[in-house]
Amino acid sequence: MSNSADAFRLTRPYATAVYRSALWQLANTLALYACTIALMFWTVTTPGIPYVATLALSLVASVGYMRLFMIGHDTSHDSFMPKKWENVVVGNLMGVLTNTPVAYWGRQHHLHHQGNGNLDKRGDGDVQMMTVEEFRTASVGQRIGYRVYRNPFFLFFVAAPVHFVVLQRYPFGHQSKALSGWRSVLGTDLGILLYYGALIAAFGWSAFLQVYVPVVWLSAAGAVWLFYVQHQYEGTYFERQSGWRYQDAALEGSSFYNIGPFLHWCCANIGYHHIHHLNPKVPNYRLPTCHAETPDLREPAYVLSLRESISTATLALWDEDRQKLVSFKEAGVTLGEPLQMPPDSILTDREVGT
Description:
single chain; 5 strands; 17 helices; two-stranded parallel ribbon
């Protein structure tokens, strides 16, 4: 591979949506999700069936939910179906089923693609990350907030469901000033109201909560974990604007999550994340073929196994000197250490009161 531009050209033959593959994936995912949700309602409304059976089924339903979310993710890139209007229709349906206003979320996600690995363009559609120096110069309150945010339990099991269930019910940031942002969010909210309202009317609040709370909770945690782990690993890529390159960020800052055929299917192939970031027009159902048939894309990718990925949960700060992601312990930082001034901040004797 002579350069990363060559890598992008290798993906072009696969960057075309295929009706047969798209419709088959959509059909089997909807069937899996609908049948499992129906079984869950049956277990909670049938006397004598322990709730543990419902919880076991929620694991299967969560797979369906995450696949639906990933299909919606593809539609935001106009890559799932061949035509744009088809992606809009499918995306809006997926948005209602997964509590995600796809057009609104997709605009944030596009900013993530445009700034992935760029230290000067963090914050849009990303898991928040500070550098070691930024943490050292932050106030105690900011450090505490960041430590809480980067705690794995809080990030995946509190922040993730709050993001999907609460924060996506109202447009924030620049999209709150645009009609398109309101239309996407409120349109999805209306769809959710009708969808959930019909289920509550049919089965009651208690059954509804017993079914949907574990499904949404597990699915939100799983979705955030997948997007987290594919950028937040020790040898990932982060550069300042002057040295940042899109293709380098895609291949070096997006991992190949090597989790085996079954789990790839469960996640709708989002594990081939380096190829997805290199060319988001490649539909998820064509990513495995692209990976298998282009050895030059496999060589530069950071391969992350399921076992290795667990350790990434403790990584929290980017060390610009060592060019790697480190834990709070490795960085040698504490909550109570004195506030340090940035290197370019020089105080005179009069300013420090001496």
